[in-house]
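Design job #97: recover the sequence.
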């Protein structure tokens, strides 16, 4: 049954119940969730980059290049990694004087007013350019405007700073400004961003914008099964649970859904081991430092590390992994995860009338 109406009360709804309201939860439901879990919400503002029309870019002032040289590309290809072509990005080079003028304009530009909160908190992975510029005049030059590896074919040297444009559509008619999330007002964006060489006559298909993301303080609220502590049968999943990314949101919903089904059948709840990507995500959400909690993507950094000896060498490899592969930590982590996931899935598969999810392991 699909009921299309606003939900503002959770306490009266039957269990199991999965709350996956997303990052733009209404004020009424936010207050209800806060009351139910017994803790206050955290928040941060997320920002998106502007997009320009390709035909409005002055191609005489930009050049195609990525930071990958041919040697690096060959090595990456040999490892089976995803490889960029040499011309994946358009680069807008800046001199020191142009960069200085640009930073002055960014810092002086009128910003969108954030009325709801006095101290906005941004996800570190997508900081607005004015927030970075306010941290130091060189911050952008060591961040999204870093020129390293981007030789200008007209000079044979790196520019002082560079703004990269990434093709945003298959047709190649739109380009986004890489790492240029911003909270500047739209009129200010048009003025300031046209200071970038090559974008003097840029036509903006979309201006940069910000939006509020609301999420709970997972370590004070959730178990690694995505069930709310002290509230049997209540699960919180998706971005509101404190994860970043579509895959991560879906992963949390997958485990919450399996456990909601287990709860309905009177079976024990379970979470994948921390050695797996999904299990590590649940472990982070439920065990991170609550005083400094930030949403996270799935990264190798949150996965349980491989065992090491006192000398720092890797410990015994997981069963079935050949010794010559031991130097490749990521391959070892992945193979260990597949083996552990298979064992967990076999032991935690929902029984009658049959497994809801059949694990697929190469």
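Job complete. Output follows.
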């Amino acid at each position: 049954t699909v009921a299309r109406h606003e939900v503002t009360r959770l306490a009266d709804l039957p269990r199991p119940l999965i709350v996956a309201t997303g990052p733009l939860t209404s004020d009424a439901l936010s207050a209800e969730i806060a009351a139910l879990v017994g803790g206050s919400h955290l928040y941060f503002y997320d920002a998106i980059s502007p997009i320009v029309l390709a035909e409005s870019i002055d191609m005489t002032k930009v050049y195609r290049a990525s930071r990958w040289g041919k040697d690096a590309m060959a090595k990456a290809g040999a490892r089976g990694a995803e490889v960029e072509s040499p011309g994946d990005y358009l680069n807008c080079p800046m001199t020191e004087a142009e960069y200085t003028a640009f930073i002055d304009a960014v810092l002086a530009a009128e910003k969108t007013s954030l009325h709801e909160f006095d101290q906005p908190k941004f996800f570190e992975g997508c900081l607005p350019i004015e927030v970075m510029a306010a941290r130091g005049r060189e911050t952008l030059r060591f961040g999204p405007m870093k020129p390293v590896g981007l030789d200008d074919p007209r000079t044979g040297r790196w520019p002082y700073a560079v703004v990269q444009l990434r093709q945003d559509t298959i047709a190649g008619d739109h380009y986004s400004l890489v790492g240029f999330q911003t909270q500047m007002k739209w009129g200010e964006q048009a003025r300031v961003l046209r200071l970038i060489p090559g974008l003097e006559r840029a036509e903006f298909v979309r201006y940069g914008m910000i939006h509020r993301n609301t999420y709970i303080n997972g370590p004070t609220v959730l178990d690694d099964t995505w069930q709310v502590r002290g509230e049997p049968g209540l699960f919180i999943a998706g971005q509101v649970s404190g994860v970043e990314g579509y895959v991560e949101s879906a992963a949390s919903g997958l485990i919450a859904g399996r456990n909601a089904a287990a709860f309905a059948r009177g079976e024990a709840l379970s979470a994948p081991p921390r050695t797996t990507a999904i299990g590590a995500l649940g472990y982070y959400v439920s065990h991170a430092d609550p005083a400094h909690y930030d949403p996270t993507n799935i990264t190798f950094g949150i996965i349980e590390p491989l065992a090491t000896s006192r000398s720092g060498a890797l410990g015994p490899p997981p069963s079935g992994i050949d010794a010559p592969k031991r130097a490749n930590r990521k391959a070892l982590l992945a193979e260990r995860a597949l083996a552990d996931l298979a064992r967990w899935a076999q032991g935690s598969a929902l029984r009658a009338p049959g497994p809801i999810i059949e694990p697929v392991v190469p």
